[in-house]
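User: Assemble these into one structure.

Assistant: Restating your components, then the assembled model:
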Amino acid sequence: MSGALMSAEMDEQPAVLGRLVDRFEGHAAQVRAIVPDRLAGVAFLARGSSDNAAVYGRYLCELAAGRPAGLVAPSLLTLYDARVDYDGYLVVALSQSGATPEIVTVCQRLGAAGARTVAVVNDAESSLAEAVQAVIPIEAGEERAVPATKTVTGELLALAAVASALGPVPFDRAALAALPAEVGAVLADPVQPRALAESLAGVERLFVVARGLLYAAALEAALKVKETARIFAEGMSVADFRHGPIAAVDEHVPVVAFDHPGPAQDDVRDLVATLEARGVPVGDLALPAAVPEALAPIPAVVRAQQLALALTLARGLDPDAPAGISKVTETH
Amino acid sequence: MSGALMSAEMDEQPAVLGRLVDRFEGHAAQVRAIVPDRLAGVAFLARGSSDNAAVYGRYLCELAAGRPAGLVAPSLLTLYDARVDYDGYLVVALSQSGATPEIVTVCQRLGAAGARTVAVVNDAESSLAEAVQAVIPIEAGEERAVPATKTVTGELLALAAVASALGPVPFDRAALAALPAEVGAVLADPVQPRALAESLAGVERLFVVARGLLYAAALEAALKVKETARIFAEGMSVADFRHGPIAAVDEHVPVVAFDHPGPAQDDVRDLVATLEARGVPVGDLALPAAVPEALAPIPAVVRAQQLALALTLARGLDPDAPAGISKVTETH
C-alpha cells in the first residue's frame, strides 16, 4: 500500500531520460533514413498511456513535418478488415511492453499496406520491435508497478526524436540537455502536487485541462488519476471543454489546469479565470519555467504521476497494483 | 423545464434525414468532383457534437477510401501558426452554425495549404459554406434548443454521403431509404431509454462504451448526458476502456453499452460480461436490428438524445437551455 514501486520507478526518470538524450540524434537519424521521399502523413498506433504519448507525437510531428499527422483506429484493421493503402505514410507504433497483440498485428498490416514503420518500445527484443523498420528502445528497465511512469516519459522523449527527424522542432539542443535535471528537480519537490492531492482526496469527479502541446499531458494525468486513485477524471483540451463539458462543473467538480509559457497559455488562463469566477475550484501543477513548451509535457507527466500517487495513498488505495487492470492488456 | 424544444427538434429528425436521403447521391457527386486524383488522406475539422460526428466520418471514410483519415488539431493552425502542406488531402469541416470562427479560419488556412475542402453545415449561407469548394447543407431548420440534435444526425448522414464519394460503403440504397422510418420508430418508442434514465437518475458518474463504427455514438451520448443532465459521463471505445478506466468502475459507476450486430459486437459483449461479473450495472440502448452497423450510429444518437432528455428531466434540470453553455462557442 506504500506505492514504493511506483515511486522508485518515477525516481529513475532523470536517468532514463538522460540516456535517451545521449541517443537522441542517433534515433532521429534512424527514423530519417526510413521516412518516405514524399511524406503523405504520419500515423500513430497505440493504446492506454501510450495513446496519450501518441497525442503529443501527433502535434509535434505535424509541426515539424508540415504534413498531417493523426492516430490509427486499430479496429478498422482488426475487426473490419479494411483494405487500406498506407503508401507514403510513416507509422509510429508505441507499446511499453511491445507485446500488445493488437498493436503488433495492426503494425504488420500497415507495413504490408505500404507504410514505413517505426516502433517505440521498452524492450528491443519484443514482437513489435521485430515487426518494424526502425526501433527506438526506451531502455527504462523493467517496469513492475502497474501504472506506467518511466516508460511514458521515455516515449514522449522518443517521439521528440521522431519529430526532429521530420523537420525543425521548437526546442534546441541545450534545452534537451537540461531536461533530465529539470525532471530531477520536479521529482525533488513534491510539495505542490501533494498539497493539491490533499485538497482533492474527497472528490469523485475531476477534469484536467490543457491546450496544444500540453493537451497530451492532461489526457495522461486524467488516465493516471482514474486508474490509480479511482477518481472519475477526464482530460480535455481547453477548447473542447468550452463546447459542452463546462456545463458539468460546479463547486464540487474541480478542474486541474496545466499552465505554461507558450502560445496556448492565454487560452488556458482565460478558461481558469472563467471557472474561478463561477466558484469552480481550480488546481495548478507548476512546471519548470525554463523548459520550452514543446518539451514541457515531460515534466507535466511527472507532476501528474506525483499527483496520482499522492491521491491514491490519500484514498487508502495501492498505487502499485490498482484493482481491475493488468500490465499487458489483451485487446484485439 | 419541459424539454419541449429539444423534444420537438428530435421529432423532426425523420423528415430531415428523409430529405438528406433524397439528396444523398447528389451530395456524393459534389464531393466526388473535388476529391484529389491521388488522395493522400482525409482530415475532419470540428468541435463539440460535430467532433463526435467527425469520429464517425473518420472511420467510415477510411473504410471507403482505403486511405488514412484523421482529425485536425485546430490549435496547430490558430495558436502555433504551423506551416503545413495539405496537398492531396480532402478536408471535411463540420459546424452546425457554420459560424464558429476557429473552424472557419482553420478551414481557410487548410484550403490555402492545398487541401480540397467540403463543409457540412446547417445553413448554406454561413461563413464556413463560403470558405469551401463543396457544401452539404443539412437544412434541418433553425435549432433553438441548446443541445444539438437534428443537426447532429443530419451531419452523420451527410458524412455517409462523403464516404460514399470516396469508395464502397458497407450499406446499400435500400438501407438508406429505410433509415428515416427506422429513426421514426425509435422516436415512437422511448420506453427503454426512459426506464434506463430512471435507473441512472441518481448517479454522478457514467461511462458510455462502444467500438468501431458505433464508437462515435458513445462519445456523443456522453457529451449529451454531460451537457444536459450534468452527469459526469465519458464516452470510450471498449478497447481503450480495458486499458485503464475499467479500474475506475464499480457498483456505483454504471456503464451504458451500444450493442449491435456487426464485427464489433463480440468485443462489446465480452466487456459487458466482464463488467456484469464484477457487479457493475450495465445499461443497454437497443437499436433497430435491421439498420446496418454503418448507419446504426444515427439511431444510436437518437437513443442517446432520448436518454439525455429523460435523465435531465428526472434530475429537475432544463434540457433546452443547460447552464454554462451557449449555441455558438467562441474558441480560437
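Chain A is about 50% helix and 15% strand.
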